[in-house]
């Protein structure tokens, strides 16, 4: 079935789509920030992702001039799954905020490269996480917000309060192993949208340790036949939530 849906994704559609991504990258490039960011500890994509195979076309002079992000080698193919990852960056009402240093650059990845590059970091995050499965038909961004940034990131106060209450509940045991649970995962079935404040308070969810929580997230993402995620980041801080828009 996967193969069918992949072959159904025509080269022409991909060309339009990939152009849209590059345009987005161009728009997203903040020239003003470029001058400020020199003071921060930024690292090159080669240092940040040493084992990642980069598509040469995404690093040619034109791509660099546009400030476009490097892409994994597989994005040259007929592919229907792509995510732009800014691992250390959070958007606070549209402004980039760095939440870890050194700040790794944006990179566009297929699912396999996303998993190869970030799974172990995601699995070893020691903090508590409440994660919401996105609606694959409509989501464009999936990102982590630490509790300390809930307000600045624009999370609705009643949603923040409900998530905070879940983060503070006593720890259970991971449903896959004997470790203490740090993740609470809500499927689409349990909580279709973040507006469902009542459900955020009452839905049972599934509890996992850090490793199995991260694997649950990745396995949910792997099942999406198509994805065009404009922004993903990695967890930071002591506790927070993975939300989608
Ligand atoms: Zn790839
Ligand atoms: Zn576990």
Task: Provide a brief overview of the structure.
With 245 residues, the protein is an alpha/beta fold.
Describe the SSE topology.
Elements: H1 2-7, H2 11-28, H3 31-36, H4 45-48, H5 61-66, E1 81-85, E2 89-92, E3 95-98, E4 107-109, H6 111-123, E5 128-132, E6 141-146, H7 157-168, E7 183-186, H8 197-202, E8 206-208, H9 210-222, E9 227-232, E10 239-244
Parallel strand pairs: 1-9, 5-7, 5-10, 6-9
Antiparallel strand pairs: 1-4, 2-3, 6-10, 7-8
Bound molecules: zinc ion (2 copies).
> What is the count of structural domains?
1
Q: What ligand species are in this complex?
A: zinc ion
The general outline is globular
Which strand order do you get reading across the main beta sheet? 4-1-9-6-10-5-7-8
